[in-house]
Description:
Layout: H1 22-42, H2 44-66, H3 79-91, E1 100-105, H4 111-121, E2 124-129, H5 146-159, E3 169-174, H6 185-198, E4 203-208, H7 215-219, H8 222-227, E5 231-235, H9 240-257, H10 266-274, H11 280-291, H12 312-320, E6 324-327, E7 330-333, H13 337-343, H14 348-358, H15 366-383, H16 389-393
Parallel strand pairs: 1-4, 1-5, 2-3, 3-4
Antiparallel strand pairs: 6-7
Amino acid sequence: MIPMKKMKNESGWAELGLNFSLARATSSSAKAEKTVENKIETDDDNFELFDAKSRKTKDLSGILEACRPTKAAELSVSKQKQNEIVEWLTSEATTGRSRILLLSGTSGSGKTIALKVLAEEYDFNVIEWISPIDSAYSNDIKYLNQNDKFVEFLVRVTRYNSVFGRSRKRLLLVKDIPNIYFMDTNGFHEVLRQYMKLGRQPLVFVCADSESSRMMYSLFPPEIVEELEIDRINIPSTTPTAMKNMLKRISKILNAKFGDLIDVTQSVIDEVLSNSIGDVRSTILNTIFASLKVSNDGSKNDCGSREESLGLLHGIGRVINPKRIVDGNKWKFTHDPDDIAAYFRSQSRIFFNFLQENYLNTMEKIEQVERCAEILSLADTISIEYREANLINVNLS
C-alpha cells in the first residue's frame, strides 16, 4: 500500500491529515494472530467451552438470516419506492462521478435491506462502513480517531479495488455515522465536500427520520443538500398488507428450517399484527419470541406467547387509569406494571411518547403532575438514544 505521504501531491485527501501506518500495523496484526493461534492450540478446553457457548448465538443469527429477503419481490418496501431506488442506481449511480443519496424513513421500515437487495440485483458490490471501537494501539503505531478512520475508509474504497470483488460497480453504504460528527457538523460537511470532488463511487447514507432523531437535519441541512446536490428518498412505514405478506413468507421458512425451536401459528401472526406499528424489524423479532417453544417442564418463558393480546392504547390505559384490587388495608394493581412493560420491550420509545402525551388528562393536583413529570424525565434520560446531543455534551455517548 502506498503511504499517504507519497500521495500528497496526487489528491486533496491528504489535506485531511490522514496518515497510513500500514506496514507496522500489518506486522503487529500478524503477531497478534500468531499469539491467538498459539493460545487456542494450548488451551483446547477453553476453546471447546467457548464454541459450546456460541452455538445458541449462531442459532439465533441463523434464524434472523433466514428471514432476510433475497429478491425484490420479497421486500416489504412498496413497489413505488423500489422503483425510485432502482432509478437512482441505474441513472445517478452509474454516471462515473461521485453522487450522494440520503435514504431516510422510519425505524424498521426496511431501508437498508431494500437498498442491498436492489443493489445486488443490479450488479453493485455494496461496501458498508462499520464504526470501529476506538482503542489504544502500541506506542509505535499512530492512533486514529473516528474521523481519521472514516476518511481512510472513503479513500480506500474510492481508490482501490478489492481482489475479491466480483463486480466492477461499487456502492458505499454508511448506516452508522461516526459519533464525532454529531458535535462537529462542519467537519462532516467538509468531508462530504472533499468526497464530491475526489470520490469516484456513489455514497448512500441511511438515516432514521423521526422527531426523536433530529441529527439528520443537523448533518444534512438544506444548504448542504442543495450545495452538494444530495438526492433523497424517503421510505414510509410498512403497510399492514405488506406486513401480513411478510409474516406469511417468514412463517413458512421458520417452521420448515427451525421447527424444533419455533412454531409460528396463525394466532401468533394475528397477535403480532395487532400490535404492529409498521416496524418490520420489531415485528420479526416479536414473531420469533412469541413462537419459541416452551419446554416440557412447564416453566415459564418470558419470550413465549402470552395469554392475551395487548394493544398500544390499551396498555397506555392500564398505566394512566390502573385498576386496583383492595384487600383490607392493602391493595395491589390488577395488572402488574412489569408485565405491561414486557409487552412493549421492542416499542418502548413509542409507548413512552404516548404516555407523555396522555398522562396529564388524569391528573387532579399539581403535586401529582410534579411527581409524574419527575419520573418521566428520569425515564426519558435513562432510555434516550445514545446519539442525542445532551448525552454527547456530558460525554456519555
